[in-house]
Amino acid sequence: QVQLVESGGGLVQAGGSLRLSCAASGRTISAYTMGWFRQAPGKEREFVAGIRGSDSSTVYADSVKGRFAISRVYGKNTVYLQMNSLKPEDTAVYYCAAKFLLDRVESESQYDYWGQGTRVTVSS
């Protein structure tokens, strides 16, 4: 079992930055594919960014390319999502998820473990 706990959300003005953290426990996640997803009010959850367990390659949704960066710190068993140039449309609850050696990082249904989410609000 893998437990995931997100943190780092909050209220920020448009153009600002936040760094979300996803701390894992229970198992070492070095070989796990980690994904960040978000769900805005009244909308379905969507993929944001992912980092593969096989080679640490990264994938981003078009809406966040060039603004967000996902990374992992092996010694801390933690994955981060650095979010820059935030926009009001980035407002959502952000979730991290984990799946051992998943290749299709965008595939929400394939993830085995999920955190409880952290809320990000971007004011205009």
Structure explained in plain terms:
The chain is mostly beta strands. Helices cover 0% and strands 51% of the residues. The protein has no helices and 11 strands. Strands 2, 4, 5, 6, 9, 10 and 11 form a 7-stranded mixed β-sheet that branches.
- Overall helicity: under 10%
**Structural category:** mainly beta
The tally of strands reads 11
Tally of helical runs? 0
Radius of gyration: 13 Å
Strand content: over 45%
State the end-to-end distance. Answer: 40 Å
Mean pLDDT: 96
Low-confidence regions: none
Task: Report the major sheet.
Answer: 7 strands, mixed
Order of helices and strands: EEEEEEEEEEE
Shape, per Cα inertia axes: globular
Main attributes of the structure:
4-stranded antiparallel sheet; 124 residues; single chain; mainly beta
Give the topology, please.
Layout: E1 3-7, E2 10-13, E3 18-25, E4 32-39, E5 46-51, E6 58-60, E7 68-73, E8 78-83, E9 92-100, E10 113-114, E11 118-123
